[in-house]
């Protein structure tokens, strides 16, 4: 192998090394971007989950209030109906 051929082989090896290094850097950057995306996605999912849990807690609270109001109204309606029913009951004649 003459010096020109050695020089060409050496330059080729350097180019291969440079390309390999560039590929390694690109892969590391891509991995960092992927890791960052995954971390952001996990954070977003956590926030969504916490928000949904809060919404669910609020809905449960509203359902309890609705049940209490329903039971109160039901009691009032029953009392009113009982009152109306008692008006229609025949009153016994009182003997003096």
Nutshell version of this structure?
This protein has 96 residues and is an all-alpha fold. The chain has one helix spanning 3-88.
Relevant terms:
mainly alpha, single chain, rod-shaped, 96 residues
Describe the overall structure.
By secondary structure, the chain is mainly alpha-helical. The chain is built from one helix and no strands. The protein has one helix at 3-88. The radius of gyration is 41 Å and the shape is rod-shaped. The model has no long low-confidence stretch (mean pLDDT 84).
Residue-averaged pLDDT, rounded? 84
State which percent range the strand residues make up.
Answer: under 5%
Estimated helix fraction: over 70%
Low-confidence stretches are none
Summarize the biggest pleated sheet: none
Distance between the termini: 145 Å
What is the topology?
Blueprint: H1 3-88
